[in-house]
Amino acid sequence: MGKELRLNEFKDLYKAWKKGIPWWDHLLLAVLYWVEEHYIDVKARNAVDKAINEVVLPPMPDSVTPVYTETHGEGSLGVSEVRLTAPWYEDSGDGV
Question: Which of 27, 80, 84, 85 could be 89's S-S partner, Cβ–Cβ 3.0 to 4.6 Å?
C-alpha cells in the first residue's frame, strides 16, 4: 500500500486488531488510514476555526466623516484648492 499510519492512536489500534491474515491486515490498514486522514482533517479545521474565533479585532467606528477643506487662491489666476481627507490624516505642512 505504501501508506503509513501517522498517529500513535491509530498505530496502536492496528497492532491490537491485526490477526496475521494478510487480506484482513491490509483491509484494516486501509480503513484505519482512511479514518485517520479524515480525523486529521477535521481536527485541523476545528483548530483553525477556534483560532480565528479567538482573534480580537479592534472595534470599527460607526461612521467616519471626511474632512472637507477649501483654500481660495490668490493672485491673477485665483485657483482654489479643494481637499477631502480622512479625519485621522495629519497634514505635514510641506505643501505636497
Answer: 85
In the DSSP assignment, the letter for residue 88 is T
Asked whether 47 and 21 are in contact (CB, 8 A), the reply is no
Q: What length is written for the chain?
A: 96
The answer to whether 33 touches 3, Cβ cutoff 8 Å, is yes
* Cα→Cα distances 90→31, 65, 76, 96, Å: 64, 15, 30, 12
Does residue 38 contact residue 44 with C-beta atoms inside 8 Å? Answer: no
pLDDT per residue as tens digits for the range 67-82: 888 887 776 676 778 8
The pTM score is 0.55
